[in-house]
Fold:
Amino acid sequence: MMLKRVAVVVKLLFFSSLLQGNAQALEAASDKTISIKFSPQHLLINGLHLYLERIPEQGSRHGFVFSPRAYNGKAKTVDLFAGRNWEDSEDDRVLGYGAEVQHKIYINNYTSPDKSRVYLAYGVNYHHFNLEFKREGWVKEMDPEGLEVYKYRLRPFNEKINRIGGVALFGLQVPALDGHLLFDFYSGAGIKNSSIQTDYSHERYNRNAMDYGYSGLHLLLGIMIGAAF
Structure:
């Protein structure tokens, strides 16, 4: 009988520790007020967008987002989206940086780390792009006699873009793995205003809303993936 009682007590302690461990894990997940996400769609244009969100306190309906951005690589994908002749853009490159700040307002209350939350968000952003590409153009050279002459041939060009903008978003944040993994789906609208300096014959990167130097209204649709801490 003593052995049976001891076995029962051990089993009770074991299950109690399991329940306590699960409760602590759930509590730890629900206490998370910081998340880090990124948007995979921006990788298509050689851009890395990170989203660092801070919620002031557990269960708060407000979130504050800082989004640093970096661009480095070939620009031919943007040429494709903008309807340019991207086959001639193999050597075109973009180097840039930017940032956005957002205020998120969650519409539904926080209930558990497994429940989705709907939100509204608004923010402002700034981007700087440096684009290098080669096209046919006039080049000033020195001839063998020391005279300056102009020749029409393939030459490098540079276009610098400074862009400011604003966004208004409607989104759905879907957690997984007790709130440790986050999927964030959003749509909305934005506005951009670009200032462009170029040594090409005309401004090249302002054809449509997918372009680096676009100015005007545009629609937004995307996904963010990340983790909560």
About this structure: The longest helix spans residues 2-30. Confidence is low (pLDDT under 50) at residues 1-30.
